[in-house]
Amino acid sequence: MKVILNEDVKHLGEEGDIKDVAKGYARNYLFPRNLAVPCNSFTLAHFESRKEEIEQRKAVKRQNAAGLKEQLENLTLTIVMPAGPNGKLYGAVTNQTVSDELQKLGFEIERKRIELPGLTFKSVGHYNATLKLYEAAVAVLPIVVEAQPEAEKTAEAKPEKRSRRHHEGDEAETRAEATEGQQAEATQEEVKAEESAKTQE
């Protein structure tokens, strides 16, 4: 069914857009939250009267997108990942990786708005990602993928070694406690045997 959006709806559209959606989605989600209204002659006339107001809000979005584009294109995003001696990554940089790294810097860019050449980066190097911001506003983001320094890899490996040593120490302590317990039991048995012998005498 056709609906008109009352406000911007993530992954669907903007305020004033006419969208064709499933009836269940409209009745169970959009309408109860006042995110959309059925598209008919009455609602079309209502949104036509709000056209100028909606366009003003879109103009603000365009202005914000232009500012964001400038910020992103003046930024070089560095992503550090484990890699082999030949520079091949243990894993891959995806658009979700880029989205997460940008979020750490305060930029909220949806994964679906980020396009990577070849879909993923699998080696260290310099790349460019295309970010679709709003309408025609597109930013080209420079990305540098670097290998994780050896010192960090070693630091990550050390806790595991310490954990193993600690585990081995626990096992040794447990064995020692078991031996002491066995010795104590043997001593008690000897005492009982001596007392029994004295009684028989």
From TrEMBL:
Chain intervals for the UniProt region annotation (Disordered): 150-201
UniProt xrefs under PANTHER family: 50S RIBOSOMAL PROTEIN L9
Domain (Ribosomal protein L9) ranges: 13-40
Cellular component GO terms held in the UniProt record: ribonucleoprotein complex; ribosome
Name listed for the protein in its UniProt record: Large ribosomal subunit protein bL9
Coiled coil segments of this chain: 44-78
UniProt similarity note: Belongs to the bacterial ribosomal protein bL9 family.
UniProt organism field: Treponema vincentii
PROSITE patterns, sorted: RIBOSOMAL_L9
Keywords tagged on the record: Coiled coil, Ribonucleoprotein, Ribosomal protein, RNA-binding, rRNA-binding
